[in-house]
Amino acid sequence: xxxxxxxxxxxxxxxxxxxxxxxxxxxxxxxxxxxxxxxxxxxxxxxxxxxxxxxxx
Length: 57
Prior knowledge:
- It is a single chain.
- 0% of the residues lie in helices and 42% in strands.
- It has strands at residues 7-11, 18-22, 29-30, 37-40, 47-48, 51-56.
- It is built from no helices and 6 strands.
- It is mostly beta strands.
- The mean pLDDT is 93.
- The chain has one domain (7-56): CATH 2.20.25.100.
- The radius of gyration is 11 Å and the shape is globular.
- The strands form 2 sheets. A 3-stranded antiparallel beta sheet has the order 2-1-6, with no helix packed on it. A 3-stranded antiparallel beta sheet has the order 3-4-5, with no helix packed on it.
């Protein structure tokens, strides 16, 4: 894990659930409440589908 990699608190655009995700996730991440896609892998930094509420160092 490089120093440019962080965990993020993402707000689901469908239900508002907050979930911690890795910004360089290599797998698709879905909301644990409504199953909406929150993160899509892109070979580097992932595409974040929800609003980023917090960045963890």
